[in-house]
Amino acid sequence: MSGFATHLIVAPVLLPLVAGAIMLAMGGERHRTLNAAINVVATFALVGISIVLLRAADVAPGGVAGVYRLSDWPAPFAIVLVADRLAAIMLLLASLLAAASVVFSLARWHRMGVLFHPLFQFLLMGINGAFLTGDLFNLFVFFEVLLAASYGLALHASGTPRVAAGLHYIAINLAASLLFLIGVSLIYGVAGTLNMADLASRIPAIRAEDRPFLEAGAGILGIAFLVKAGMWPLCFWLPSTYSAAPPPVASLFAILTKVGVYIVLRLWLLLFGVEAGASAWFGGELLLAGGLATIAFGAIGSLASQGMARLASFSVLVSSGTVLAAIGMGQVGVTGGAIFYLVSSTLGLAAFYLLIELVERGREPGADVLAVTRELYGEEGEEEDELDEAEEVGIAIPVTMGVLGIGFLACALVISGLPPLSGFVAKFALMTAALNSQPGAVWTGAWIFLAVLILSGLAALIAMVRAGISAFWASPDRVVPRVRLIEIAPVAVLLLLCAIQTIQAGPIMRYMQATAQSLHAPHDYIRGVLGAEGAGGQERRGRI
Amino acid sequence: MEIVLALGIGVFTGSGVWLILRPRTFQVIIGLSLLSYAVNLFIIAMGRLRTEAAPVLAMKGVGDPAQFADPLPQALVLTAIVISFATTALFLVVLLVARGLTGTDHVDGREPES
Predict the structure, then answer these.
(1) A269/A327 Cα distance (integer angstroms)
(2) pTM of the entire predicted model
(3) What ipTM did this prediction achieve?
(4) Considering only alpha carbons, which residue of chain B is nearest residue A140?
(5) For residue B40, is it within any domain?
(6) How many percent of chain A have pLDDT more than 90?
């Protein structure tokens, strides 16, 4: 990439910043329609930019589309933005979710509180910056931007449950940010750099007596990210916050846990890959075990949840647990499958969050709780007045319910990983790669991973079917929710993307595998950031 | 000086951790503030403690880096202070809203049944 195209790398950060600032400067609520228009245009422009970056990363040598040096200072001394394959995939995923939820919010949700549109753009700015940055401290700053905007959005439309859940969310994230700072400064104290690529080239040369500090720093940093990714036992805040958040926001929040997962994927493989010397694969078993525990916790939680929003939130946990466990296996093939799964499950979950609001609209609050309680105490027959079969034949299913039902079915297929949608392809890829990762006998960890993955799919299926039955096979006199086209269209588009991911599974999987390969062998990334002199990284002496 | 700084960080962290585990929102916010002071001091310590050394290079020429304090942790601390100040202010607003909506200052929004 050259000339104007190089500047495209900074666009995913600048565009939302400028768009958000313009909206604020115009005075927020007085021009809501104009704000909404700016938000939609900016978000769709982001989708376009991400697609361009995705293509550029694919054809670029080494998979690095470009390194943007802010203010053109040389790399290890100043902040860089790096657009490689993984960053491009995540950018595209984030902007697609954002586009879907902004269109959805136009129907009614953006009117329920103040400053929805500017906060939305600032959230996007933080997310995109976190994906692009090549510097640890800059990552902290983007995380804070993202979190500050997410606090505002989680409290959008107010209400006691939201404020109570938001209070926990903010307190936990503030504490995690402080851990983040401790980790960053420990790493700086030992290695003397905060540039990720520079750090990766210095780690093999770190002296044995300094290594415990480096590993402690990395561990503390890891905890901060894992809180955000929702790994068990750091995930208890997640279900209540996500299920209390307004649906379009919750749908975009599906990517927030993936930001934590992304950082683990990026940093762990970059810093503690094969070449890290004595620190190679530091904490890998912990990632695998923690990921498996997260899947189990999420699966049990989704079986126990009484409302659909909680069910979706526990599915978010299952999804990030699966990716974390797959990363922890440290195999190229599994990582490729994990990225495919990450994209597929995030799209499915985002669609599910949007769909839940449409389904729940026609029901009195607490209907799900009642349904589960009824099942428990076996009082089903008493309350429902069963129709005669002759009467039942004549009842037409309203079109809305039919469309919502098909959407729900598709979400269930993607989330539980059944054919024919992308969830199945993703899980299949994960399992084949886990089984074939080592020649000869299959590793015990791979068997456990396989078993947990299949069981979690079963649990998700049971939970989804139960929720679906109580929502769609209810007595026919229920109120049919009024759904507008701009509300159902985003759901349909997200599910269509899952279908495309299935049909085009070959080329997409090839892209994911190439991504995984460059993550596991990050020479090109390091060379791309540090330039020609980066090869001499080992010769440059550390500060200490 | 090292021992004083280490003790200071330790006391701040200990008090902060104890306070954020308390059930009242005001205790939590003070705990978070104390923790952020501890973290700020810690970042400075990671740039090595130096007295009577300027954090920037001399006006003319490059100078010897060994004669200056490391400027990077100081820049990091400034950013961290600003960010933690802003987020604490935001938390304070949410705290007040929660107090107004739920009528209690318990972190769960309701008094525990005793």
Answers:
(1) 9
(2) 0.88
(3) 0.92
(4) B80
(5) yes
(6) 25
